[in-house]
Amino acid sequence: MTHFALPPNAVIGIVGGGQLGRMSALAAARLGYRCHVFSPEPDSPAAQVCAAHTLADYEDRDALRRFAAAVDVITFEFENVSAEGLELLDALKPVRPGPAILRISQDRIAEKSFLNAAGIATAPWAAVQTEADLHAAIARIGLPAVLKTTRLGYDGKGQMMIRRAEDAAGAFAALAPKPLILEGFVDFAAECSVIVARGIDGTASAFDAVENRHRDHILDLTLAPAPFAPGILEQARQIGLQVAGQLDLVGLIAIELFLDKDGRLVANEIAPRPHNSGHWTIEACPASQFEMHIRAIAGLALPPATRHADAVMKNLVGPEDTALWPAILATPGLCAHLYGKAEARPGRKMGHVTTLFPKGSLPGDFGIADALRPLVIEAPRGAA
Ligand SMILES: Nc1ncnc2c1ncn2[C@@H]1O[C@H](COP(=O)(O)OP(=O)(O)O)[C@@H](O)[C@H]1O
Ligand SMILES: [Mg+2]
To answer: What is the span of the domain harbouring residue 341?
Structure first.
């Protein structure tokens, strides 16, 4: 079956105005498309590089209708948009990925239920509506465990670790809205992710799995490929392809995984959009995650997600990293990205840098630290 491909100069609507939309729009421009951003913030990172911008709340039905009339296909770059809003849009123009997939990814209970039904392992978990549910869940799952809100969490916000039974009531009271989800704590050896693009015809391409290291709950470093045994990398790719297939995805999805100390992969969450752990693909791959996303939603051919280099990506977070911008620009070998955010608040992702290595020669921690100077990375693991 052949599918209609979006012709050059067509307009892609992007719901959400952040850096993921910005980099998607830049990739779309390279493919000859125009983008129109829908977001409630004026001067957003995405709107700065787009041909048109609808400035309105995600619930503004009139503005959503006008937006749909102005574009040919619609995607989103931000998961905390209104699913109802996307459903309204989907009745007017194709929304890719579909709103049903967004709904799953917006709710940790729906997400974990989907993953388990697909036969993909997660940490043990339980829905928690009342304090009595929490005590029962702790009795079943054990401690330590992580109590999370089911919706609107990001960068570790909306979650608390419960180490001792005495901490349970306080954590329950602190987190809202209910229901919450309790997850067994995974004492992981590493965190990783895999990104998959899937087209209208079901063709799917998975990028190599990467290792992700966080700092203060915010992604700090991505190592591509993850320095794991080849069998584990292949398993991660298979999990990604399976998730994309089961969801009947059209677009791009990231699956965050833990590698536990027994070498097993355990899924954590899914994000049906470009992902921070895929920014390295801009320089290290013939078609980046952003281009693959645009190709998938536009009905274009999806090339294999190949990589011509190894790469390390580091986020530029808050005023500290932003102050290093001139030094970063003066450093050969750092591919530098800034997102156009007016204010460098602490903890805010302002940009990122990627550094490339010949394929197969990703260095160890000291070599990575060296390649990223003047940026300072946390003491390499195993260092005193
Ligand atoms: N069950 C868990 N076991 C161990 N670490 C966890 C667990 N859940 C979350 N974490 C840690 O917290 C981080 C953020 O949690 P996550 O569920 O990915 O939420 P979000 O990215 O939406 O803030 C994870 O990347 C991981 O480092
Ligand atoms: Mg996460």
So the answer is: 188-372
CATH code of the domain covering residue 282: 3.30.470.20
- d(CA 198, CA 249) in angstroms, rounded, equals 6
* Pocket flag, ligand 1, residue 153 (CB < 6 Å): yes
- d(CA 361, ligand 1 centre) in Å: 29
> Are residue 267 and residue 198 in the same domain, yes or no?
yes
For residue 384, give both structure tokens. 């005193």
Q: Is 260 in the pocket of ligand 1 (CB under 6 A)?
A: no
Length of the chain counted residue by residue: 384
pLDDT classification of 381: cutoffs 50, 70, 90: low
Distance (Å, rounded) from C-alpha 347 to C-alpha 353?
16
What does pTM read for this prediction? Answer: 0.96
Q: What's the domain count of the chain?
A: 3
Contacts of 237 (CB under 8 A, 6+ apart): 194, 206, 208, 209
Q: Which atom of ligand 1 is nearest to the CA of 219?
A: 25
156 alpha carbon – ligand 1 mean position (Å): 6
Which residues surround the ion ligand 2 when the cut-off is CB under 5 Å? 256
Element (H, E) at 160: strand 159-162
Query: pLDDT for 142-194, tens place per residue?
Result: 999 999 999 987 777 899 999 999 999 999 999 999 999 999 999 999 999 99
Spatial distance between the Cα atoms of 67 and 236, rounded to a whole number of angstroms: 37
Q: What is the DSSP letter of 25?
A: H
213 and 172 belong to one structural domain: no
Burial class of residue 67 (count of CB atoms within 10 Å of its CB; 0-12, 13-18, 19+): buried
Lowest mean pLDDT among 19-28, 155-164, 296-305: 155-164
Q: Are strands 204-206 and 125-128 parallel, antiparallel or unpaired?
A: unpaired
Helix 289-298, helix 19-30: angle, nearest 10? 70
In the chain, pLDDT over 70 holds for what percent of residues? 98
- Quote the radius of gyration of the chain (alpha carbons, Å): 21
Whether ligand 1 lies within 6 angstroms of the CB of 269 is answered as yes
Strands 11-15 and 159-162, sheet pairing: unpaired
Residues 175 and 229 in one domain: no
Q: How confident is the prediction for the chain on average, in pLDDT?
A: 95
